[in-house]
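WARN retry 2 of 3 for item q-0093 after timeout on previous attempt; input resubmitted unchanged.
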Amino acid sequence: MQGSNFMNYFLKYLILISAAVPSVLSCQNNDKLTVKEHPNVLFIMVDDLNDYQGVYGGHPQAKTPNIDAFASSATVFTNAHTNVPVCSPSRNSLFTGVYPHNSRDFGWTPHFKQAVLKDKKTFVELFNDNGYKTLGTGKLLHKNVKKYWDEWGVPEGINYGPHAASGIDEKGKRIMGHSSVPEPFRSINVVDGSFASLSDTPVVIDENGVLKESGWTYGNNPYKYTNDDDRDLMPDEQHAQWIAEKIKALETLDSKQPFFMGVGFVKPHTPLYAPQKYFDLFPLEDIMMPKIKDGDINDIYYSTVYPQTEMGLAYFKKLRQSFPENDLGLRKFLQAYLACVAFVDDQVGTVINALNESRFKDNTIVILISDHGWQMGEKEYLYKNSPWDESTRIPFMIRDPSRSKKLDKVAHAVSLIDIYPTLKELCHLEKKNTNDDKIIQLDGYSLQPFLNNPKTEQWQGPKGALTVLGAGINQPIEGLAFSNNPGALWHIEINKDLDTSYVAKQNYTYRTKDWRYILYKNGKEELYNHKNDSYEWNNLAQNPKYKEIKTLLSKEMLLLIYSSY
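OK item q-0093 returned
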């Protein structure tokens, strides 16, 4: 179902769609706000974090006491999803409130260069316009703009790292990743091809052919690691410390100015490095492996639109090649991921504890989210950017001290696009959300009804969460796009606006409370019933018994995609 055929498929059902799901067509009309109270906001974003937390139950051995403690007094959205399962376009959409298919932002274009988004204010700017003091540190927007912030914390150049110092291995080849990781996985790149405890000091061959420790580095600067108690702080630790110190500093000020404070943690994004004590929490021999069904790839169609060299497909194969003994490679990778999750949980704890011990606890809204998940070998895939639950589903929690002080769970499907309108309503942000006279409707819907009643049926948003996987621009096109990452064909930057034909060239997945529907750009479909198949093992798309529900879900999804055109 290419291009025009995809559009025809939509138009064929447009009248029926409108009758079936009219609520999604209506605009979100907020009454004029009269309340002038402006609560503080602490916004916590964790990179590449899937559902490996105790409160979500994604892995039985995950150790996240701080996130779980926070969840105990928050509204937890158990069916929340990213709108793009990769970093840059996900964050661009989140901070601007525009669906990727509406902006045609499918690649790595900075939001301030993207044709549609460049005139759209991020919610950080909107907080500034409404008199908030804005403070930030870490990985928030993929390309940060410091003028958005009154105060910025740790320099962005050390968000990632440390890295293993490069050198030559014992076979004379340049080391890309960590020296303890075998080939071919190690040479994927210096980021994704690396996982190890900090106590596992990288080694290289020096100019004299002698094997020696090369140590750790931040670019050209060394990173000190003697042991867990004698080392430099990792970036996420620096970010957490900076936020904690800023909260204490704000307490000393005699000011009624509200604040928006954002912190972006990088872990568990690759490279999967963490202090040894976090690896010790997960002895390798005791690691419980993900539930993976033999032959699960036989009824899926991801590889029909992405080449076998695509990162997630290639990564899993190379991991198996590098560790041929049963599933040793996946076991070691999983150990490192769990260690990094436990590590970042401590940093979340540092930030939230600082807030809880301050006078701001009872007038500060706290939001904790991830930009997307991570697939751990399910469907022979190791990465993000897939259409299935492990990649799209994310932790998503909001604590509003003016409401419930207990754990509330929301099962309705929501997504990151709903953050902007939620903040706008909760904090009574009344200024324009554009840099010019254009009126750009926020694509999401305020989640306030769920905060008032987690089981409400009064929410005005759609029945499902929409996620797009960029394709159709997956290689550099002269005059249109370029790439600085040949290992990721979709990892490109767009030079000019894409026409609407590119909307039909993407792959889409739509998740409701009980179902997941996937439509690839070539017309291939997948359908999973989450009532009895939470692992998405059985594709029902070709089963005549489920034709009616498949048709309904496709109509709902296509309406969300094309209602603005």
